[in-house]
Write a structure and sequence with these properties.
alpha/beta; Rossmann fold; 9 helices; 5 strands; 58% helix; binds BIS(adenosine)-5'-pentaphosphate; ATP-binding; P-loop_NTPase; transferase; cytoplasm
Length: 190
Amino acid sequence: MLNIVIFGAPGSGKGTQSDMIIKKYGLFHISTGDVLRAEMKNGTELGKIAEGYISKGQLVPDELIIDMLAKVLDSNEETKNGVIFDGFPRTIPQAEALKAMLKERGAEVSAVIGLEVEEEELIDRLIKRGQVSGRSDDNLETIKSRLDVYHNQTTPLKDYYINEKKYKAIHGMGTIESIFAAIEKEIDNL
Ligand code: AP5
């Protein structure tokens, strides 16, 4: 069973490549960003709390995210056949929680696909998406704070997964298809 983490900065293509991975490998897609945006749209308690963080480009507190992820795993039987985790984990405590949750299910993280993209390109992609999607955090000020948060709080995870021998670096620039071809190679080698 494959449990893959797709890792990278805002705008690195995690969502785009996850869509292609689920089509080919039949994994269950969990995007914590999508789950949070659905909670916001439905006006739930969690959604109201999350909105305050997301609008500033900050991370939602670990305990809320870990609890949310556990509920998604517990309420979807298909997750037992393998998952692509998109946007989770983003901190070391989240990575430790994921390890424990998978261990309880007799599973583990199979690989971490790290999409590596230059900063200028990230900003360019997100500004362009903001113009059409209207995502409230795709404006220059919030994008800059999301990138700061990524560098300060999320990049330590790269070393964490290198130490665990799970990290697979992927050059995340170029066409969507060429990036997917590099990801396929890594997944097929597992
Ligand atoms: P989240 O929704 O996870 O956003 P993100 O990490 O900022 O990532 P994005 O969705 O912006 O980008 P992506 O890497 O998926 O790229 P995409 O494929 O869309 O999180 C949002 C917020 O929720 C966080 O800031 C935080 O507040 C909160 N949150 C979520 N998870 C959390 C957690 N675990 N802990 C705490 N808080 C959490 O592509 C971007 C654009 O580029 C698209 O327009 C796409 O079409 C384009 N594109 C993709 N690939 C290419 C390519 N090869 N060439 C050109 N354009 C491309």
